[in-house]
Specification:
The complex is a heterodimer of chains A (109) and B (115). Chain A is an all-beta fold. Chain A is built from no helices and 11 strands. In chain A, strands 2, 4, 5, 9, 10 and 11 form a 6-stranded mixed sheet that branches. In chain A, strands 1-3-8-7-6 form a 5-stranded antiparallel sheet, with no helix packed on it. In chain A, a hairpin with a 4-residue loop joins strand 7 (59-64) and strand 8 (69-74). The radius of gyration of chain A is 13 Å and the shape is globular. With 115 residues, chain B is mainly β. Helix content of chain B is 0%, strand content 53%. Chain B is built from no helices and 11 strands. Chain B has strands at residues 5-7, 10-13, 19-24, 31-38, 42-50, 53-57, 64-68, 74-78, 87-94, 104-106, 110-114. In chain B, the strands form 2 sheets. In chain B, strands 2, 4, 5, 6, 9, 10 and 11 form a 7-stranded mixed sheet that branches. The chains are: A mainly beta (109), B mainly beta (115). Chain A binds chain B through residues 30-31, 33, 35, 41-45, 48, 50, 86, 88, 90, 94-102, and chain B through 33, 35, 37, 42-45, 48, 55-56, 58, 88, 90, 92, 97, 100-101, 103-106, 108-109, 111.
């Protein structure tokens, strides 16, 4: 079993829909990152969380430490949100990142 | 502030050759991490350097090595290239340690193709 599991693997939605991507992990962590990767490869860090909830524009990230679960929400989705979204966790005492397999999101106009 | 830069952006090598990739972190960042991304394995941690010292290492063979210079620039080297080393190699820099939750800033990556 992978240390970091994401669901769904692929998601296609209509423009304007509310999007939720889930991430579950099995190890104790010091932080969880949500990353966005567009075609061509560049990765942008969207959020870094250790507790609670963060919001940036139309993006919201939440984390439940007790349940070892995080969600990334996109409100009023837009075709430019189409990308691969990757969850990554940083373990306690070992600062390396372990990545989920990513969720490929496609927003149709 | 300039972002993380990686050179070269694209590289084609032959099996058995060796390759060196370079990463310049954001000014003031002292930690540099390297990652390999392949379609089959996804993103995997290679190693992390801080102040010229390797602090963490992933599960890669000894053919993969790296170093960091006094100006925080980092290089990674892959010797005796194999077809399976074809991948996107990403580096990321982060703000000074002492914070358990420091943010990582990724470079654009070097796409290596081994033929």
């Amino acid at each position: 079993k992978n240390e970091v599991e994401q669901s769904p693997q692929n998601l296609t939605a209509q423009e304007g829909e509310f999007i939720t991507i889930n991430c579950s992990y099995s190890v104790g962590i010091s932080a969880l990152h949500w990353l966005q990767q567009h075609p061509g490869g560049g990765i942008v860090s969207l959020f870094m969380l250790s507790s609670g909830k963060k919001k940036h524009g139309r993006l919201i990230a939440t984390i439940n430490i007790q349940e070892k679960h995080s969600s990334l929400h996109i409100t009023a989705s837009h075709p430019r949100d189409s990308a691969v979204y990757i969850c990554a966790v940083r373990s306690w005492g070992n600062e390396k990142l372990t990545f989920g397999t990513g969720t490929r999101l496609t927003i149709i106009p | 502030k300039a972002g993380v830069t990686q050179t070269p952006r694209y590289l084609i090598k032959t099996r058995g050759q060796q390759v060196t990739l370079s990463c310049s972190p954001i000014s003031g960042h002292r930690s540099v991490s390297w990652y390999q991304q392949t379609p089959g394995q996804g993103l995997q941690f290679l190693f992390e350097y801080f102040s010229e010292t390797q602090r963490n290492k992933g599960n890669f063979p000894g053919r993969f090595s790296g170093r960091q210079f006094s100006n925080s620039r980092s290089e990674m080297n892959v010797s005796t290239l194999e077809l399976g080393d074809s991948a996107l190699y990403l580096c990321a820099s982060s703000s000074p340690p002492g914070q358990t939750t420091y943010e990582q800033y990724f470079g654009p990556g070097t796409r290596l193709t081994v033929t």
